[in-house]
Every structure is written in C-alpha cells, then in structure tokens.
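INFO batch 0412 | record 1 of 1 | parsing
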Amino acid sequence: MPVREMLDPRWRRLGRVRLYCNASCLASAVLGGLILLGWASGSKLLKSAFLGLGAIAPNTALALILLGISLWLLLPDPPRRPRHFCGLGLASVVSLLGALTLIEQRLRVDLRIDRLLLGHATAVSLRMTPITAITLFALGLALLLLDWQTRFGIRPSQILSLWSGFAAVMSISGYINAADPLYGFFSFTPVSVYVSLLVFFMGAAIFFARPRVGIPGDLMGKFVGSSIARRLLPAVIVVPVFAAWLRARLEQGGWFGAELGLAFNVTLNVISLSLLVWLNARQLNKTDEALEEAREAKDALYNASLRDELTGLYNRRGFLTFAEEQIKYAQSGRRELVVLFADVDGLKAINDAFGHSEGDRAIKLAAQVLLTVFRDTDLISRIHGDEFAVLALDCSPEGLVRIEAHLEKALRASNSLGNPWKLSMSLGAIHVDSKHPVSIDELLGKADKTMYERKRTKPALVPR
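INFO prediction complete | emitting tokens
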C-alpha cells in the first residue's frame, strides 16, 4: 500500500476497498476471456459462462475484459501517465461498444460489431441488450471522468457508476420474479445473470476507485454517520432482493397468488428495514453513551488537572486559568478585586518535629481555614508547598481589615482542636487598580512581597 494511504487512519478500510476493486477487475477480465475462449473453441459451456443455458455475446465479453483492465490501470491515485492514457483508451473503447450497440438497437441497423471479433456470423439474438449497452457505456464514461470534479465538488464518475447498480438490481429482480425477457428497454437474456452481477461489482469498484472523495468519502469516514451508512447499505441492497426471491419461491410453491405475494413482499421489507432501523438506533444510543462517558471522563480529568490533590483547592494552573479572566473584568472598571498571598508559618519546623504527615495535616487545616474565611465565589488555591493565593471578588481595600480579623479568629478556632503544633499564617494583599492594569503574575508577586514583609515582623514560630 502507498505511504500516503498508510498515513491515513482509515488505511485498513481503504486497503480492503482496494483489494475489492482489484478482485473485481480480475473477475471481469477472466470471465470475459473465458467467454471469448468459448466462442473461439466452440465450447457451449464457456460461451454461457458455465451456466449452460445460452451464449453471451462476444462483444459483451470483450467489453468486460477492457473494463476490468481499464479500471486496474486507473486505480492508482494518481496513475502514472502511460497507465493513465492506456486506461482512458480502453475505457473509450468500452463506451464506444455500448454506444454503437445502442445505435444498432434504436436505428435497427447492423454495424456487424458481433462479427468483427470472430470473423463468422453470429445470431442477432446474441447482440448486447439495450440495458447492458447503456450500462457499459455509462461505466466506460465513468472511467473517462474518474478524476474530474465539478466546482461544486460533485464527481460525475460516481453518479454514472451508480447506474450499474440500478441496472443490475433491475435485471436480477427480473430473474427472481421470472419476468418476461422481452419487455423493451429493460430486456435481458436468461443467461446474462453473470453479466448483471459483474457490471454491479464493476460499478461498485469504479464508485470506490477514489474512496477519499465524494460520496465514498462520506461512506469511508471515521464518524458515526459513516459507520451507520456502512452497516445499513449492504442490508438495504440485500434485504429487498432476498424478499423478492422468497416471494417468488413461495408463489411458485402455491402458497399464495400474485396479489398476496406483493403484500408479503412489502410486509417483509417493512419488517426487515424497521428491524435495521431499531438495531442502528440502539447502536447509536450505545455510541452516544460511550461519547458521554468519554466526555465526562475528559471533564473530570480536566478538572483534576486544575485541582490540588492534597487540599482539593485550585492549583496554580487552575488559579491562573480563572483569575486571568476576572482580572481583565476588574481592569475594565466593572469589579473590585483583591489578590491575597498567604503562607503557613513554620511549616518546616512542624515537618522536622512531627514528620511530613503532620505537615500535610497543617496544610489541609490551613486550606480549611481559608475556605472558612473567604466566600464560595472567591478563588482559593494552593499554588506551591505551603503557599496559597486568593482572588477575593467584589472586595475593596477596606474589606481587608475584616478579612484579617476573620482569619485570626479562624486560626484561634483551629488551634483549639488539640493539635501538637500551632497553626499560623501570614497574609499579604494587593488591590487590583483598573487605572494601572497589570498581569496576574505581577499581582501575585506584589502580594507575595507584601506577605514576606509582614512575615519578617513575626516572631519565629516554635511548635508546641
């Protein structure tokens, strides 16, 4: 597989599609060659493609060979120039064969196409049927337009290749329902079932020859819609054909007549397709549930990345993430803010005297004290070790006096719990001035400097 395809996350799916296209090319060329060999050797079995019911026209066999070789040459994206021109030339011959056969059919003239290959007379009844001629003409034209795209992003090649699916399903349904083989434009011979299947597979191969763009690109995508389409499409094709086959068999067995058979066919289609809709709806629900769980897990992971594991407060990242927006809002003059920097006094002495587990308890107790002092709307964070930062919303400089009084009261309450150490905290604050905007890092630096100036005036803390 080319390197460009290996780099595509859909490379496995694309590889299977390419394998299918190559297999279709091989089947078309081999079957067409066997039919021509049958005409050359006089083998009725090979002429009928092993069905033994009647011969397939030699020009149809030639068209199948050229169609398979042409697609094989054009499959690389982009193909090399010699392969490209050779493939286009063979596709032109296929379209020409189909067009000339249509001219013979509509104008009732004999262009002796059937005699050119073998050099002896062939029955007029073996002439390529109109539906086969139109299908081969469409497929040859689709190969000629394989890499052409309109300015609206439409690929005519893909639209033309879909005709083969319509023609093949029409013919196969005619076989299943034992339709009269002489019904004008959509006439077919009883032995062309292989031709119907081959043009269907070749049409699908041409349709998926450029699987990254157009309609195939939507079907080959990685999202839920593409996945559902891939699951539904085979059933949408197979279920109605199977229902028609089952109806024909039951009618032939005398279970019911044509009218009731039509009702049975419709009912079976409705039930089958409704079942498919339900199964896909259930799969969609499971997919949505998985996406919701993944979204919740992602949100939880994101929130965890913003939280301090020890205290449950915001960490430095979380504080800076939310504080920056509030600072900008305050600097516009619409909100008063105070940035505070707090530090646990004597934490090293607590760790040395009582161990790091008691030091962690002191940090958690300090976090609880801050949660008591400040409001739920304020941003409280542990930014590093024993250092805390607070963004007090709608707080004036005068409000700092009340905050400090409340902090001292909360610390006294915490120290009455009987811990073997005394909890003390130093606090520094800076008011956000809308007239002199600064960043949150600068505000934290100023608050930190104020806190350390006050901390130096305190006596050294000795654990109990």
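INFO post-check: The longest strand covers residues 337-344.
INFO record closed
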